[in-house]
Write the structure tokens for this entry.
Amino acid sequence: MARYPFDIIEPKWQKYWEEHKTFRAVEDPAIPKEKRRYVLDMFPYPSAQGLHVGHPEGYTATDIYCRYLRMRGYNVLHPMGFDAFGLPAENYAIKTGTHPATTTRANINRFREQIKALGFSYDWDREVSTCEPEYYKWTQWIFLKLFEKGLAYEAETPINWCPSCKTGLANEEVKEGCCDRCGTRVTRKRIRQWILKITAYAERLLQDLDELDWPEPVKLMQRNWIGRSEGANVIFQIEGHPDQLEIYTTRPDTLFGATYMVLAPEHPLVEKITTPEQRKAVQAYIEEAAKKSDLERTDLAKEKTGVFTGAYAINPVNGKKIPIWIADYVLISYGTGAIMAVPAHDERDWDFAKVFGLPIIQVVSPTPPEPGEDYSKTPSVCFTEEGYAVNSGEFTGLPTAEFKKKIVSWLEAKGLGRRAVNYKLRDWIFSRQRYWGEPIPIVHCQNCGIVPLPEDQLPLTLPEVQSYAPTGTGESPLAAITDWVNTTCPRCGGPAKRETNTMPQWAGSCWYYLRYLDPKNDTALASRQAIEYWMPVDLYVGGTEHAVLHLLYSRFWHKVLYDLGIVNTKEPFQRLVNQGMILGEDGQKMSKSRGNVINPDDIIREYGADSMRVYEMFMGPLEVSKPWSTAGLVGVSRFLERLWAIGEKPLCKDLSDSGLSEEEQQKLLRLLHKTIKKVTHDTETLNFNTAISQMMIYSGELAKAERIPRSLWEPFVLLLAPYAPHLAEELWQKLGHSGSLAYEPWPTYDEELCKETEVTIVVQVNGKIRDKFNAVPGTSKEELEKTAQALPGVQKWIEGHRVIKIISVPDKLVNIVIQ
Ligand code: ANZ
Ligand code: ZN
């Protein structure tokens, strides 16, 4: 058997595609919108480790789909690029003094080579890299638009701060209270920040999820992250004080059960209402609380702490005097930063009341209150569900939902409250005290204050620095370059200083899918025409780790661009598919320390890119996690070798010349049509593993022929093309065709020939399988039942018994029920 020369044909076809620009996407206006598809991969961060076997999983999936679509006559946009700003390059620079741009470009070149070696059908003319000035000019431009619309603002807020890395961190960069990078405990630090008002879009980000064809778990994660909550703000008077205390509650129906109040330690009223006796204790507590992150503070399992302020509030529903405490489990950033505590029906309040011996009054009962029943005892458990009001004056007996409505109207009528909606979503802390990111295009002027750079001064490029290390003062290394920092105010011409914070690594990926549409445009981020031609992204494939970060941030930016009239769709990504994780052979996550990392370069060298592609798709359904198996890979490579061997056999014109018997010929023809049908369906629905199985079955049968009939081989080569494109191109050429098969029409099938000629009928007696037989599809129930009862394997079970009834499912099953 001739060797399957993947090492020769793979570079050959990659070169061919590149030279002929086979996969260049052109905005041909003659192609109607329904015949255009934009298929996107999550672009990689070009790490020093090079490509991981997880990358080609999603990339192969989209590539198969794109190649299939082209053969179905679609105009397909399939681009690739690099998410190139980020911490590792900067850390490396700190260690070695090598400019991050140098390392990043080297890594990009390696990634590009590795990706090209897998034969993906990207339009490389559209490649983008987020760290290039021609690209980040437009990231900065979008920032200016956000600023103009009041969606980017400067504020001093406490943020997560790593004392060791000397930088602020985003919430997502903190894991269990420690810096994700170095493991040091994160502290809180108040520093000047740039913040994006993503909260202004909370409702739309939530509502528009409904229209998206995304995995339900991702939508749910976004819904929870946005965290819409409906309830009421209620006003409490403070005893002997002119100020009022406003709280937010989702359970206004529990007002009669409020036995104390809690203010966040940072609440502005704390200072005013604390009595002289309590001042010292309160002050000490505030200082302690300031060191903790919100996550630590709201951890349910945490021991509750707090201090009494010495002041009292008056419960508006019953005039009762209740103490006002401060405690860190109440956050200043949520609702009004103050709560009424109902320990009988809220876990945290319950724990707190137990620690400090505060009263617990039941006001909700799981069942409607019975006359004569006593609800005055302190409850033994915290009941947080809805139910019926007890101990609630005139409202007693009302179901929770109805009580909520009534009490809100009652409060509104008295001017003591109103309906309120809150979101968990916080504004996005958008500045980093780091070097390797997009400079924020803002100038601080002594006269004019904050002044945005005029658009014609973009891009504002990163200057060269001596040291990449963070300063530790809360300023980025840029602050040390006085030449760059000192500038003139674009508004008044007076002396001014540049903003020295940079953007976070998520900025560039917020809009890269738009730049692919028109990557060389230097007058707009993309032309309106290109945007209208391709958007929205029809299919977006990538890992699950981006569920609430990139995928939420980019939806936010997209909506802002929509409001500005720059994009024409409300949402960027219509359909999302998450690929599963590829685990090591041992079923564990691949990691250097476990020594179970598979290197794609080795696989390509030993088995070829097509084997790698087909194997990764054959491992299992795209969405599930699955372990690597070298045996599985070898099996797939044998399959491709067998295909090569079929291609080496002599061809014949007609099926009748194949050397197969009449019966085998008929069987093979039917199998071809069934294979076309199944591969078409499975490719369309991204069920690549089952499409591959079917191709294996068919090729196994075809291999039995001495001479290969062209009409049974050519369509198969076309089916194979999206999966193993190099091999398919070569086989196509061997069949005498010139040029690429990339745009050959996809094979069609004859529905008649796909019909089964025989079906297997399972026969059960009292539900247990006892025998089976073959029948022509569509055989009548009567006929099936007659045949079934006559089978010897069935006879011995029913003999001497009375048949009570027979249940049969045409083409499938006969179940005989006996006494
Ligand atoms: C009284 C009450 C009684 C509450 C009860 C719950 C159950 P979500 O659903 O997350 O919006 N809360 C309000 N503001 C808070 C803050 N700044 N920090 C910490 N907790 C705060 O939760 C809203 C509930 O969380 C509110 O309803 C309030 O406690 C608390 F049986 O008020 B509730
Ligand atoms: Zn000025």
